[in-house]
Amino acid sequence: MASKDNGRTSNRGFASMDRDRQRQIASKGGESVPADKRSFSKNPELAAEAGRKGGRSVPASSRSFSRNPSLAAEAGRKGGQASHGGRGATAGPGEGD
């Protein structure tokens, strides 16, 4: 049963909030993390260790990107398209790199 509020089907939850309220809440996301733990750009060693931990949590048999570069490239393209909301022209393989 759809409401008449901008085509939304529910008036509950984060997605139903107006954009300003979402931004206000999202901007607080890192506040609970100590500054020395949240700043990978200022501490490359911390970033590298976090990456190693993440890599160790995946079994070697499931690390398909390391064995299949084209799969990794495709995933990267999908991620870029998703994060940019489908804006702009889509580049084919090897274009726009």
Q: What helical percentage do the residues reach?
A: 40-55%
* Main sheet characteristics: none
State the secondary-structure class.
mainly alpha
Give the strand tally: 0
Quaternary state reads: single chain
> What do the pLDDT scores average to?
75
- Terminal Cα span: 45 Å
Low-pLDDT sequence parts: none
What gross morphology would you assign?
Answer: extended
Q: Helix segment count?
A: 5
Order of helices and strands: HHHHH
Rg estimate, integer Å? 19 Å
Give the percentage of residues in beta strands: under 5%
Question: How would you describe this structure to a colleague?
Answer:
There is one protein chain. The chain has a domain at 35-80. The chain has helices spanning 19-26, 35-38, 44-56, 64-67, 69-83. The protein contains 5 helices and no strands. It is mostly helical and 97 residues long.
